[in-house]
Amino acid sequence: MAYGIDTQVVVVGAGPVGLMLAGELRLGGADVIVLERLTSPTTESRASTLHARTMEIFDCRGLLERIRTPPNEQRGHFGGIPLDLTLPGPYPGQWKVPQTRTEEVLQEWALSLGADVRRGHEVRGLSVRPDHVEIEALGPGGPVRLRSLCVVGCDGENSAVRRLAGVDFPGEDAARELIRADVAGIDIPDRRFERLENGLAIAARRSDGVTRVMVHEFGWAPRPRTGAPEFDEIVAAWRRVTGEDISGGTPLWVNAFGDAHGQLTSYRHGRVLFAGDAAHRQMPIGGQALNLGLQDAVNLGWKLAVQVSRRGSDSLLDSYHAERHPVGVRVLANIRAQATLLLGGPEAEPMRAVLAEVATTGDGRAHLAGMISGLDVRYAMGDGLDDGGAGHPLLGLRLPPTRLSTDEGETSTAELLRRGRALLLNLSGSGGDASAGGRFDGLRRAAGPWADRVTTLAAKAPDDSPLADVGAVLVRPDGHIAWTGHDTEGLTTALERWLGLVRPRPAPRRTDHRNTTKWRYDMGKLTGKTALVTGSSRGMGRATAIRLAREGALVAVHYTANKEAADEVVATIEKDGGSAFAVCAELGVPGDVHELFLGLERGLKERTGSTELNILVNNAGVMGGVSVEETSPESFDRLFAVNAKAPFFIIQRALKNIPSGGRVINISSGLTRFANPDEIAYAMTKGAVEQLALHFAKLLGPRNITINSVAPGITRNGSPVFDIPEAVEQMAGLSAFNRVGEPEDVADVVAFLAGDEARWITGSFVDATGGTLLG
To answer: Torsion-angle region of residue 591: left (phi > 0), alpha (psi -120 to 50) or beta?
Structure first.
């Protein structure tokens, strides 16, 4: 990392919230290290309930396939009062997933995305600097010091990050308590919030034969605890409340939780942020605490990824607190109400009777179910953060889960959100009226500069869906609708607000702290453009792909066989904040161009909603390297098929995709001007390539498309000869600069020809040999 930074984000805590956040950050392209005090995942499955909104989020990230089909209960409770939780959506009710399984799935997912999870690391120091955060931890091998742009505390209600940052945690200590345990080897009746004379008893036997028991004695105040209660304590309390003896069982774990509550005044303190129980403490009634924390992580992850890439403003990251803090206030309030109903003695019975009636009425039931499930969460999406989501009825709500019909077949809203990208959806209907299509084309073009972060698609929802004929909507990566309408200005404002500016400004020098709190960046000259670079898995092609992406282009990285190398180029581009995808096609064989454009157009349409190609770089080629006597007809034909025939027909096919202002750059060779008897056939192919530029320039001029040839000289290309100092010295002597060329030298020339500055250059031969042709 530049400027002494080890990673962009350190997440402290590898529980469900920390792992969810790590995955979201990686989807957004941010580097993340997760530090966890425990050396191995916990075996205590404390939270086992996932609500409907969390299930939808897991579906949107492809995680339900790993969880498979957990037990479902459509009836939940509000403070022990039965409540039907069903609301419109694919996952009504509550779903029983042991926390151990949730953590296992989230860790596998985060690791598969490239998160660095380090267990056995206890955070002991935290220092916030003007432009970074320093974290000290004790790891298995001794002290560890990390520098990051931000740190996020996801380390529970006793958060070390919160303590080390000196952040106040206002709230109240527990006045009532439940003791609970998972016990094997007992046989007692199931009890669902059974209120007896002396207290509350809950028992539920699982499919594995283990019974979870929870007990509260009315009027009993909790004592301060320094650790978990002993099993004997719950045995005695269970006997006093129920009269049953569970002492013969084997406790798997025992703990106690009270009705203590607390919430940070602010979820963000500069470069230090908090999520989950580190941000809010509440009694875990009905599984709301876990779900609240997971949804914190999903709200924060993409925003923080935009910020640490220096694309966003502070207002974007501040919106995390502005959106999630009020949700936390509301959830904590309903949990405190439930605690009073659940743990209160006879004095709570009148309130319970009233709530029992409310919980069975249509509006009352739906209100309570929406609050507990998280399906009613609505964020403000206007210019101010306090507009209450005014505007379209769907604005600020989560995108209703729906099957959609597109020109390419059926899909779902969840499938479209799998990659953690925003969505620009034309829901007027695929193949709708011309005026609607024209308006959407304008919106699509307006969203072009954000093509690396927005998937654009025309689709039709079922007639009975809330999305039927809504028009155009912008959906944030967390699934909430950020904008609806038809005007490009409004869309552009929403894109800038929620997805950041288009290109990053270079990181400030360590000695310059004037702008260290603002992580914004400037627009690249190729922003909104798309490019295809053939043969770009290595050498000059690789350097060219990276260079064009750095200028803002969405780049198709073509390769023939080495998928790993192409994927590495894509990963390098994405790590630097760019956008790219790989395309495989063997050139010089029948059907090569068709295969190439199948992959190219599929990739472009997925990312931009269009197959428009602005820049074509014909770089792929094969060398001869044999004498005239050893050149066979087969090798001669192969050279011409790859080096000359393929570029001709690639240009021919690309003209269907290249609009006015497009650029075609062909990589030739200095060998068309510099003799080498071992490369006669190769030089002939490159001479043909130069004729493409000369003659196509006349054809394409009326369409305002330029085409030029770039001729590299001796350029470092990975050949073993460049590892021989004597050979490199000899080759360097041929250049006016007394060195061999680097791939980046050629890539910079290509980038110039691809930009607007080269609009008056066409049909030209550009000498990029470093003066080798000067003689």
So the answer is: left
Domains of the chain: 2-172+262-373 (3.50.50.60), 177-258 (3.30.70.2450), 403-499 (3.40.30.120), 530-774 (3.40.50.720)
What count of other Cβ atoms lies within 10 Å of the Cβ of residue 262? 17
DSSP labels for 283-294? Answer: ---TTHHHHHHH
- pLDDT tops 90 at residue 723: no
Which sign, positive or negative, has the C-alpha torsion 581, 582, 588, 589?
negative
In three-state secondary structure terms, 145 is strand
Contact between residue 121 and residue 137 where contact means Cβ atoms under 8 Å apart: yes
At 113, list the tokens.
């995305």
d(CA 344, CA 363): 26
Question: How far is Cα 79 from Cα 335, in angstroms, rounded to an integer?
Answer: 8
CB 349 within 8 A of CB 59: no
Assigned token pair, 116: 């660095």
Range scoring the smallest mean pLDDT among 59-68, 114-123, 166-175, 220-229: 220-229
Say if residue 104 is exposed, middle or buried (CB neighbours under 10 Å; 0-12, 13-18, 19+). middle
Q: What is the pTM of this model?
A: 0.66
Instruction: Give me the pLDDT at residue 429, please.
Output: 59
Q: How many helices (H) and strands (E) does the chain have?
A: 21, 34
Q: Residue 704 gets which letter from DSSP? A: T
Give the span between the Cα atoms of 219 and 343, in whole angstroms.
Answer: 9
Coil, strand or helix: which one is 258?
Answer: strand
What is the mean predicted confidence (pLDDT) over 609-615? Answer: 89
DSSP state of 93: S
Euclidean distance between CA atoms 517 and 589, whole angstroms? 54
For residue 752, name the pLDDT band (cuts at 50, 70, 90).
very high
Positive/negative CA dihedral, 687, 693, 696, 697: negative
> Can you tell me which residue has the tokens 């769907």?
394
The amino acid sitting at 79 is G
Q: Which residues contact 50 (CB under 8 A, 6 or more apart)?
A: 58, 70, 94, 95, 96, 97, 102, 287, 290, 291
Q: Which pairing describes strands 663-667 and 615-618: parallel, antiparallel, or unpaired?
A: parallel
Query: Residue 641 has what DSSP assignment?
Result: I
Going from the C-alpha of 563 to that of each of 70, 87, 108, 250, 577, the distances in angstroms are 37, 45, 23, 53, 21
Provide Rg for the chain, Cα atoms: 31
Nearest CA among 499, 581, 569 for reference residue 532: 581
Tell me the two tokens of residue 581: 């995808």
**Residues in Cβ contact with 497 at an 8 Å cutoff, skipping those fewer than 6 apart:** 315, 316, 482
In angstroms, the CA 164 to CA 162 distance is 6
Give, as one character, the DSSP assignment of residue 643.
I
